[in-house]
Records
---
Amino acid sequence: MKIVIIIYVVSWFILLAFYIATHFGKKNNHSSEKEPWHLYAIIIAFAPLIVLYIPYLLISSSIEKKRKKAVKEQEQREAEENANKQRASQEIQAAINEQQEEFTYDHSMVAQTLVKKIEKKDYDSFMQYLVHLSLPDGASLHVEKCKEEDTGDTSKLYVETAEGEYNQNIWDYIKAENSIDGAWEAYFLYKVWHILPLWWHANYSRRIYMFSEEDADSIQLLSFSERERRQPMIQKKVKSLISKPEVVEVDGKYHVSCCYWTNFGGLIKETVEVFISPEGKVELKDIESQTLYEYTCGIMF
C-alpha cells in the first residue's frame, strides 16, 4: 500500500510540475490557448490524498517504529527476568547442595503441629510452637475467623498489644531469629491463612501443604466421582513428585521452598524470599511458583 501511495505522490508532483511549467510558459508566450481541463481534474482529485495521507503516513510510520521499539524492549526485559530467575534458581540449588548437612532441624514438625492445632480450632497457641519468632512483652497473636457473609472472606491473623490494641500488620510486631529455623517459621506463619477457615469464593485459595510423601494421602478431590476413579492414582503420582521443604541462605536472604496441593491448580512448589534484619524485622516476598502436577477440579463456588 505504501508503494502505491508513493507512486501516486510522485506522479502528482510530476503532473503539478508539468502544469506549472505549462501554465507559466503560456503566460510568457502570451498564448490564448485554453488549458486542458483534465489537468485541473487530476490535480484536484489527488490533492486531498497528498495533503492528508502524507502526514498520516509519516505519523503511522513513527507510531509503528515506537511500537516495535517498545516490543523489543519488553522482550529484552522478559529475557533478562528469565535469566535472573534461572540464575537465582541455580544459586538456590547450589546453596542447597552446600547446606544439605546443616538441615538438622525438622522443619516439617513445627508445621505439622500447627496444622493439627488448626484442625482442632486451637488458634491462640501458635506462638508457643514458633520458638524462633517472638512478640513484644504482653503482646499476643490471634486469629480473626472469616465472616460467613457476602461472596467470600478469609481468616486473618492479628496482634493484640499489651495496651489492648488490635493490628493485622503482624510483621510490625513479630521478630525472627536470623537463622534457617527463623526463616522457615516466618514463611509458614506468612502462608498459614491458606489453611485457616475460608468462606465461599475464598476457598479457591485453600491449600494442603505437602511436607512429606505421606501428606499426599490427605488429598481429597472435590468431585465425588473423581474421588473413586482418580484420587488413588493422583495421590500416587503426587507422592513421586513431592520434595521436602528447603530453606537456604543466598546473599544474606533465605529462600524457602515448599510444596502444596490445591484442587484449583494441582501440586505447586512455591519459593518465598525471607529477609531478616539484624534487629529481627522480617520482610517476605513471593518469588517463584512452579507447577509440578497440573490438576483442576472444574468446580466453581
---
Amino acid sequence: MKKLIVLGFITLALVGCGKSQAEIEKEKQAQIAAQKAKIEQEKKLKEQAEIKATEETVKYYLKDGESARFRNVIKNCGEVNAKNSWGAYSGFSRFIVRDDKQVSFESPDNIYFDAMVQSYCHKDYLAKFPVNNPVGTEETAAAADAAVASDPAPSIAIDEIPTRSRKVTTRGTVAEATAAASEAAAAASDATKM
C-alpha cells in the first residue's frame, strides 16, 4: 500500500511539472511570430541592399557621383540630384537602372522615357509615381517624326545625362550622316582648290 501511495505522489508531481496545453500553444505562437519577424527583417535588408546597389550603379554614371543625392528610390527607379561640370546641383531627375546595369536618365531629348518607366520600373514605383503621359501613342510618334523631319541636317543628341560611357544616337540615319560628311569634305576640298 505504501508503494501505491508513493507511486501516486510521484505521478502527481510529474503531471504538475509538465506544461499545460495553453503554455505549449503560447510557445508555438511565439516561435511563429519570431519567424515572421525574422523573415520581415531579411526582406527589409534585401530591399536596402538592392537600393544601395542601384544607387552605386547610378553614381558610376554621374560626373560627380560622390555628390549624388537620391530620393524616391524603389527597386531600380528613382530620382537623383548631382553636381554638374560647373559644380552646381542640376536638380532632381528621374533615372532607371535596366537589367544590364545601364542607366537611363530623364531629359528633354528622351521622349520615350515615360514608356521606359512603364517597361522597366517595379509595380511599387508605378503605384506610388504613376506615369501621367504614356508615350507610344500615335500622337507622340507623329510629333517625334515631325520634329525629326523638320530638322534639315542630322544632328547628334546625347541619349543620357553626363556619363562615363556616353551613348550617342543620331536623329537621321547613318547613311544620311555619312552623305552629309562626304558633301562637307567635298565642299571643303573645292574651297581649298580655288
---
Amino acid sequence: MKQIILTMLLLVAMTAGAQTNSDNKVYFSPDTNVTYRLFKTQNMHIFIKLNTSNGTMKLVQFSTSNTRDMMQADLSDIELATGAEAKNGRF
C-alpha cells in the first residue's frame, strides 16, 4: 500500500512541473501605419521583427548587459510586396 501511494505522489510531482502558465495573448499597437512590428518568442531575449510593408522578417537578439550580444539575422528576406504594393501596415 505504501508503495502505491509513493508511486502516485511521485507521478503527481513529475507532472506538476510540466504545467506552465504561458501568456498566449497577442499585443498589437493600434497604429496600423507602422513600418516594423516586434513579436515575442519563448526566449525572453529574442524577438521576430516583421517589416509590415514588404513582409520580410528578422530575428532580433536583445541584451541589457552587453552590446556584443545584440544581433539581427534574416529569417525571411523574400519581399512579398514591392513597388506601389509595399505600404506600411500591409502585413
